[in-house]
Design brief:
single chain; Alpha-Beta Plaits; about 35% strand
Length: about 200
């Protein structure tokens, strides 16, 4: 499993209906994409849910590296983002765990993404193990569609991404997003539990 996200930060006075209309018109394009576990079409709106920015920030969980590569540079869709917004930096992480939640069959309306650096004073096994326990605990909560953990070993950064049926609890750490659409053609192919 591979996690991927790019953030397109838009002007403070940007009409976010443009992004909503874009997703409404094009969101289903990846509903049957080979290699894609899920793509959450995410936005943040300035002044809503604590966001200081307007942002379009899709988050992907790829079942296969070939699917991700085809999307990015094989003509599989990323060229549309580049044509409309320029080429954003694409953050990516190696999948460490995926946990289905009790609301997996629901349509998620919200998401949280919490990134943190693994402590330098402990080995990766202990740090990732603690993060894995947090993902399992989150996934067991009512209203959770699914929760994933991924790690960038270059910077030793972890990302904990969770999809929620409704708004997440107020004390949930991380950035909050609205989910405009979820493409999940190979959701059931993502390995449940830790990825090693």
């Amino acid at each position: 499993m591979y996690a991927m996200q790019y953030d397109i930060t838009l002007p403070a006075d940007y009409d976010m209906r443009i992004i909503r209309d874009r997703v409404a018109g094009r969101g289903s394009a990846l509903d049957d994409r080979a290699g894609l576990g899920l793509k959450a079409y995410l936005i943040r709106e300035r002044g809503s849910a604590g966001s200081a920015v307007n942002q379009y920030a899709p988050f992907y969980l790829w079942h296969s590296l070939a699917g991700m590569n085809h999307f990015l540079w094989g003509g599989g869709g990323f060229q549309g983002i580049v044509a409309d917004f320029g080429r954003p930096a694409v953050r990516h992480w190696t999948g460490a765990a995926f946990e289905p939640g009790p609301a997996l069959r629901s349509v998620p309306r919200a998401a949280t993404r919490h990134t943190s650096f693994l402590p330098a004073d402990s080995g990766p096994e202990a740090a990732v193990g603690r993060a894995l326990e947090a993902v399992r605990a989150t996934a067991a909560q009512p209203g959770v569609h699914s929760s994933a953990l991924a790690v960038d070993p270059r910077h030793w950064e972890s990302v904990h991404f969770t999809l929620w049926e409704e708004e997440p609890p107020e004390d949930r750490p991380g950035d909050r997003y609205e989910v405009l659409h979820l493409s999940a053609p190979q959701l059931t192919d993502l390995p449940a539990g830790r990825c090693w």
